Amino acid sequence: MKWIYTVGMTLSCALAVGACNNATSSDPATTERSALNPPTSLVSLTGDKKLTLRFAAANTEKDFQGYDVFLVADKTVSSITGGKTYYPSNAQIDPAASGVASIPRCKDNTAVFEAFGFPASTATCEGGSTGGGNDTSAGNSLRLADTAAAATEDPAPTNFAVCDENTTDKSVSLKLSKPILGPETCTISKTSDGKALANGTTYSVFVATVAGDKKNKLSWTSNFIEDTPAASLYSATVSLTRGNIFQFKAANLTASPFTAYDNTVTTSTTTCTTLCKANSLNTAATSTDDGIYIGRSGVDSYPGRAFLSVPTGGSLQILPRGPRLTLDTATANANTTTPGVDGDKAIATTSVYDGAGTLYPIYGYQVFDILVTQTVAGATVHHYGKIVIGELSVTGTATDASSKLAVPVTIIMQPEAERTDYFTGN
């Protein structure tokens, strides 16, 4: 999972609909949007009764206050949008349309915001760029910038979920008191009304930037995502020195009921049944060493780097996220886009993936989708899951053999890919 950050006017222009317009533009969205940069590149790291959100922030506004997280349960992004086109007309906020657009709150978009607990909006989406009656700042819209046209001041929203990291000001989801340029993290374990997130329930989420002394000005939305918390088979921080490698046996991912991994590492390969000490990052499987391998190489080529691998010829595949390019046989160019894992949803097809026998570097804050293939009563069954990597930290100098790399690892299975009985009873 790569993170790309762009700041200042470049970000405002690139993410607004069309190019940056001049003062006579008939699209007020560009001008208003640039007054308060929204979060971008929102993703979710699936957790046990929680979601860890990561997004890119670029906020130097003088009245910047922090961020608000809005989520709704049991509604997918597709069902919220209903397949319709909203303002701006090419927003494409349905993940199925490969869109991750940012949108304002106005009457054309009111159904989307109402799904997240906002009151109906009658504010006109289109109009002059200088404000006035047609400005998206008017009416019930949560203002993007102060305008003289607003007769009354909009109230601050209350339908947001508070981040676990926020231990001070609970009047926003994530309170930050200084300009922010870079990545931010927010762990959500409760809804806006204080109810705990439930495993097996799908949540749709967006984040907005908050400004104003009364915290009543919201930016356009981030992209919209959805994710489903799930019980973990393993969730702990592994400590990696050079040559220290863990093997998570594949059998735990296909057992019924599922078997959690023991936190105790077994050093004997002949007696190990769940979590084992391995000799190498295995990419050449035999019948006894199938599983997930996480560790640091024992050779000098990459002494400070952690890797993830699954053996070739085993039951596991790693499914990289994002669009995939395949070779165009006519031109020998990789110019044909094939679907990748769609946002934070489970996989629908696996034909374009080949992630067995490959070493994947671990950088932190990553999600690796996994497919486990099993034969049951002569039939092929696919199990879907995730390996979630948290924030990495190092003790000592990373390139030294004696340094320790702490890697938070969570392994879960989820109700997709032909099986719907993971932890939910469905």
Derived structural class: mainly beta
**What is the number of strand segments?**
21
CATH superfamily label of the largest domain: Immunoglobulins
Q: How many angstroms does the end-to-end distance come to?
A: 31 Å
Mean pLDDT: 74
Order of helices and strands: HHEEEHHEEEEEEEEEEEEEEEEEE
State the major sheet: 6 strands, antiparallel
Strand content: 25-35%
Q: What's the CATH class label of the largest domain? A: Mainly Beta
Query: Which CATH architecture of the largest domain?
Result: Sandwich
Shape: globular
Approximately how much helix is present in the residues?
Answer: under 10%
Helix tally equals 4
Low-confidence runs: 1-31, 127-151, 335-344, 416-426
Please describe the structure with a list of short key phrases separated by commas or semicolons:
426 residues; mainly beta; Immunoglobulin-like; five-stranded antiparallel beta sheet; 4 helices
Short synopsis of the structure:
With 426 residues, the protein is mainly β.
Describe what this molecule looks like in 3D.
This protein has 426 residues and is mainly β. The chain folds into two domains: 8-227, Immunoglobulin-like; 232-414, no CATH class. It is 6% helix and 31% strand. The protein has four helices and 21 strands. The protein has helices spanning 8-15, 28-34, 77-81, 110-115; strands at residues 40-46, 51-59, 64-73, 174-175, 180-188, 203-211, 217-218, 225-227, 232-240, 245-249, 275-278, 291-296, 306-309, 316-319, 324-328, 333-338, 360-362, 366-376, 379-389, 393-395, 404-414. The strands form five sheets. Strands 9, 14, 18, 19, 20 and 21 form a six-stranded antiparallel beta sheet that branches. Strands 3, 4, 6, 7 and 8 form a five-stranded antiparallel beta sheet that branches. Strands 11-10-12-13-17 form a five-stranded antiparallel beta sheet, with no helix packed on it. β15 (324-328) and β16 (333-338) form a beta hairpin. It is globular, with a radius of gyration of 23 Å.
